[in-house]
Amino acid sequence: MTQASIQPVSFQDFGRDFDGFSRDLGGSFARYGFAVISDHGLPQDRIDRAIAAAKAFFALPEDVKNKYVGVGGQRGYTPFGIETAKDAKHFDLKEFWHMGRDLPAGHPYRASMPDNVWPAEVPEFHAEIAWLFQTLDALGRKVLEAIATYLKLDRHFFDATVDQGNSILRLLHYPPVPKDGPNIRAGAHEDINVITLLLGAEEAGLEVLDRDGRWLPINPPPGSVVCNIGDMLQRLTNKVLPSTTHRVVNPAPERRGFARYSTPFFLHFNPDYEIVTLPGCVDETHPDQGLPPITADAFLLERLREIKLL
Q1: Calpha distance 100→168 (Å, rounded)
Q2: How many angstroms separate the CA atoms of 93 and 247, rounded?
Q3: How do residues 100-118 score in pLDDT, each as one tens digit?
Q4: Which pLDDT does position 72 carry in this prediction?
Q5: What's the pTM?
């Protein structure tokens, strides 16, 4: 997906032309399920430090990393060869780490959101990764303000639906690919959550399935974040905002010796938020799908089982 097929939307317009920003961003989501947000303004040195901390963890010996394997893949480390795209026959070529929201003792959502774990072997990991989580969480809430406005809702409609959401920062490591085979770095899938924010990766590979069946590569310019609609928001909006199939393909032969790292932030609703079709999203073009209400937590658990994380 090049700039010729999708125009980046400048985040600077959030402050200087919010209505225009909402219109352009929502239009990109409605057409592709994806948008490229340029000029995000996040400090690159802090991003680099967070990615360096992630690389330091993934460079640890396997027996050390395995000390931090989390329950259900929701926190800590998930080893290589576990996650498998829904209905896929072959596992993805990746390992990853998950950080979620910190909750105080006695919080009603603790049953759905376990405590974070932190690798003692990388002292800077906790501070740098927590910073990235909080930064992308704040950016995601602003994106939701624009989405709400595009949907003709109150600008702050989503605030109370995600303020304690079961959001996840995923640190991904795709090792070098030594040879051809049936596995790819990430099989074709749609995201489970509300929206996903993805900072640009050093190595190419992300592709989106367009309406005509073509796979379009996404290579965002520096200083950009790729954002896509997840299945929860697709369901809430009755497919007015689609959750689009995407994948990460294996590198060209000359790049097989290089690892790929990326840091998607999966923004989620609060666990008890009930996903019910928005009345304003039902029309002749988008007839009501008749889907029953479901809580965000029940939806998440259903999908985690499908991808073999539960």
Answers
A1: 5
A2: 12
A3: 999 999 999 999 999 999 9
A4: 65
A5: 0.93
Instruction: Check: CB of residue 245 under 8 Å from CB of residue 188.
Output: yes
195: which residues sit within 8 A by CB, 6+ positions away? 140, 143, 144, 147, 227, 228, 229, 230, 233, 267
Cβ atoms of residues 241 and 285 within 8 Å? no
* Amino acid code (one letter) for 210: D
Name the pLDDT band for 71 (thresholds 50, 70, 90).
low
Both tokens of 250, joined, read 């294996």
Give residue-wise pLDDT tens across range 160-200. 999 999 999 999 998 888 777 778 788 888 999 999 999 87
Residues 189-221 pLDDT 10s? 899 999 999 987 667 888 999 988 999 888 888
Which tens digit of pLDDT belongs to each residue from 46-56? 999 999 999 99
Q: Give the residues across from 274 on adjacent strands.
A: 295
Specify whether the backbone of 76 is left (phi greater than 0), alpha (psi in -120 to 50) or beta: left
Q: What are 172's two structure tokens?
A: 């991904």
DSSP string spanning the chain? --TTTS--EETTHHHH-HHHHHHHHHHHHHHHSEEEEE-----HHHHHHHHHHHHHHHTS-HHHHGGGBPGGGSSEEE-TT----TT-SS--S-EEEEEE----TT-TTTTTSPPP---TTSTTHHHHHHHHHHHHHHHHHHHHHHHHHHTTS-TTTTHHHHTT---EEEEEEE----S--S--SEEEE--SSSEEEEEPPSS--EEEE-TTS-EEE--PPTT-EEEEE-HHHHHHTTTSS----EEEPPPPGGGTTS-EEE--EEE---TT-EE---GGG-SSSS----PPPEEHHHHHHHHHHHTT--
Residue type present at position 264: P
Q: How many residues does the chain have?
A: 310
Pairing of strands 34-38, 9-10: parallel
Note the pLDDT of residue 142.
98
| CA–CA separation, 295 and 298 (whole Å) | 5
